[in-house]
Amino acid sequence: MQEIEAKLVDLDFRTEPNSYHHWKISIDGELAFLEMDVDENVCALGGYELKLNSYDIGVDIELYDAIQRLRFEHPEVKAVVIQSGKPGTFCAGANIRMLGSASHFHKVNFCKFTNETRNALEEASKYSGQIYLCALSGAAAGGGYELALATEYIMLIDDGNAAVSLPEVPLLGVLPGTGGLTRLVDKRGVRRDLADVFCTIEEGIKGERALQWRLIDELIPRSKFESKVREKALSFTKTSDRPNNEKGIKLNRLDKKSNETKVRYPFLTMELDRVGRTVTLTLEGPIDDCNNIDTAKCQGGDFWPLALFRAFDDALLHLRFNEPELGTLILKTNGDDSEVSSYSSLLEKNSSDWFIREILLYAQRVYKRLDVTARTTFAFIEPRSCFHGLLAEILFSVDRSYMLDCDENSDLEDAPNISISPLNFEFFRMANGLTRIETRFLGEPESVDRARSLINKKLNGSAALNAGLITFAPDDIDWDDEIRLLLEERASFSPDALTGMEANLRFAGPETAETKIFGRLSAWQNWIFQRPNAAGDESALKLYGTGRRANYDRKRT
Amino acid sequence: MSAEVNYDSLIPNNVDLASDVKLRRAMEQWYPKYLDWWKQMGPDGFQDCDVYLRTAVSVDREGWAQFGFVKMPDYRWGILLAPREENRTIGFGRHMGQPVWQEVPGEYRAMLRRLMVVQGDTEPASVEQQRFLGKTAPSLYDMRNLFQVNVEEGRHLWAMVYLLQKYFGRDGREEAEALLQRRSGDEDRPRILGAFNEETPDWLSFFMFTTFTDRDGKMQLESLAQSGFDPLARTCRFMLTEEGHHMFVGRTGVERVIQRTCEVMNKNGITDPDDIQAIRRFGVVDLPTIQKKINFHTAVTLDLFGSEISTNAANSFNAGLKGRFREHQIKDDHKLENDTYPVAQVVDGEVKVLEVSALSAINARLSDDYIADCENVMKRWNRVIDEHQIRYHLHLPHRAFHRKVGEFSEVRVTPQGLLISDREWSKKYHDWLPSESDLEYILSLMEPSLLPGEFSNWIAPPKAGINGQPGEYEYVRLVA
Ligand SMILES: [Fe+2]
Ligand SMILES: [Fe+2]
After folding, report:
1. Is A429 in the same domain as A318?
2. B170/A489 touch (CB, cutoff 8 Å), yes or no
3. In this structure, are A475 and A490 located in the same domain?
4. What is the reported pLDDT for A210?
5. Closest listed residue to residue B126, CA positions, set B176, B73, B183, B80
6. Pair A174, A274 in one domain
7. Same domain membership, residue A163 and residue A262
8. Per the structure, how many domains does chain A have?
9. What is the bridge-based pairing of β-strands A139-141 and A278-284?
10. Contact residues of B toward A, CB < 8 A
11. For FRET with A356, which of A197, A450, B151, B172 sits at 20 to 30 Å CA-CA?
């Protein structure tokens, strides 16, 4: 057993607008302005200054929180403008000193999280009726321009100076890793040769040419910048279906208690096994019944599905950033399965309500987060579990599922069952645009129909196995041994090879901009991060700011 | 089987079968299939005879060899492990010094399962290979020995099946079933290792097989008896007590054939051992043909050791799963990370001995130990020839001779170890390996002798009976 590395302070993903250091939210009727004004002296990892609105994980945690809150706490907000609080600068991208000094493991997690946040922002524009625009009042470089690319409308100040740029390749020897390359050609349809030119010009492109090349949507003279931005944002509110007179749902600070071996949230507990290098996440079912949305809204942040998924979301982030050595996540549920079913149908029946829609989209985001978490994921379906509807989706995200099989003679009260609901067929799309059940049965579409015929039926181990909904159904005599061997064997494999294998097997089916970002772009970026040309002492990333030129290994494959 | 079966009396065991629900359930499903297999693939035509057999009912001195008459399908195959040693530690590889594993370490599940499946597969295979021999037995004594070996190979299968069922869950049960489904020599579902798909058409082949191939079994069991997975080590240690008898049957069988040949030569004044025609006229096996059989069986058996230089073997050694022959008696660090070992290889058209990393030479070393063991057998056989003042010596062929696996699989080598061309080989190989007519001749001798105390002409009687029984003892009660 390797010694466990002493940990510095854990990253905490919980924050709220009153404690923001880098962002400011101002609400103005149907509009919200999200202003980036990074405090250069407050950095998350230490050892660098966040100059020129450059960002690190701390800045992005606040952005992530702001996006969440705008969606839940402000049903009335229909358009959001991202802008800068610093004159002459929009955002200089991810902080280079931070990238030069952070561990590989942190860089990869950082990129993944920033990508997820930008995807969430895009999702808000598309499905939540809260449309994001970006007002570039100054230079937007690298991650700064990539943030703009994630919005639906990019306005650039025409002051003869402000440019958009992706200088990573010429300046740093790495990639714009927050979806920039993908969104340039996929989302904005920038011609690939022009994109090639753009991505190799360190100072970027400004003015008319930026407009012509579709790098931005509108060029606004300095004098009219503020009013035009506002005008444009208001025009976007017209397309929104968000309600006008609903109360927002306050997201209170998530209650999280932890010690060396346990982390406890409302409705979710994690048990950390540092010897076996596993984490058991137990998701708890609801403790009261709720059969109408007025009650749900009354309960607000305590409404079971919302409270549970907030915990689930935070738990995954906690594990990614703070527990890198715990390689296997065991997902269990515990609770009253029929209650979970009735909550599931409540969600399904009211999916057009803004609040329920937000919850379903949030659950979709968390499931996507689980999909791209670089850990082995197993679901164990045991007595008292409640893998129904909303929670059954877990079974289709994990790498394998094991269900305890009990024959007719055994105590029926103890026999676990699972049950799928229309939620699993409509609401939770993967990055590839398909549902998890469709992806699972890519090679046997008839199994999707068979699964549909089982909606709302309680399936025991053999039935679930027959329908292909679980991986194995050992009985009680075999269970302990199977599980022990499974976990020990998994822990013995190379973590890198597992990450690569799992990521390749999880995303069957079509490519989308999102799968390209997580697959192609991130994989290349992670490769480049490992190479001497990015990580060595002679690399541009390390030499940045010293005046010395990078010395590259010139071989290409 | 019904729930009332008393397992402890039906299945001699020291693994607490009666109270092990999991194992019992697996056995309940497997046992009937095993019996079907035995009836279908076990000794042909003698299932209803009473045979004087040794049964192991426990591992102590009195229990492991209880003699009595039994019909083979009623034989009490047991699950017996050598007693557990307190505080045993892993004796080699990367986990050296740690306490031995009582459960399968998940990390090595697949590797261990493979080791057991390969070992387990050889046990029923030899029963299948030998199933028709009863009909041509040269005596009731020999017939009984054949059946003894057969039921014990059956028990060896049980031993591996026990480990698979007890420690490997569903996978293990599936593998246990597959062991009953493969068939020696079957085109579609052959046994795993080559030698176990060869025929054993005659009794000389049987004696050669038990001399050479069961001796490979002994080497494998000795290395597995060192295993850090304690149940495997204990199982193999007990199996070794039975393997000794199999090799005894083989070694003394060939010895008695040689004895008879020498007696006949002396009696009839034949001094030239190569005068095959003269010798065969008296219905015995000439020594050059015995040499050819030795050549054949040695080569086929050496192939069973796998490639001399092997990553698999290095891995299982390093993991602490399979050691070397008598690992605990070897004086080195038992980790071999920086050691080398000499291995014969083909270099520039010659057989040369080169030093290679000792870890990757585990198989080479085991086959060296095997060869040394076989040399002792040669000495005993040659002593019989010497006692009859016949100028002839039997030799083990060079390790490179007639190999299909490993360093020498691509080249032609004489029994003396000289590399030769394909053309030379095609001219000479009948001098070194039994020809069709040699085999036909041996087959022609296979007339059964089924009266108590009677022996076929081509083989001498043994020096002593089984369990002190007299020469004319009726070891097998034939039913008409
Ligand atoms: Fe055996
Ligand atoms: Fe044997």
Report:
1. yes
2. no
3. yes
4. 95
5. B183
6. no
7. no
8. 3
9. unpaired
10. 21-22, 25, 103-110, 167-170
11. A450
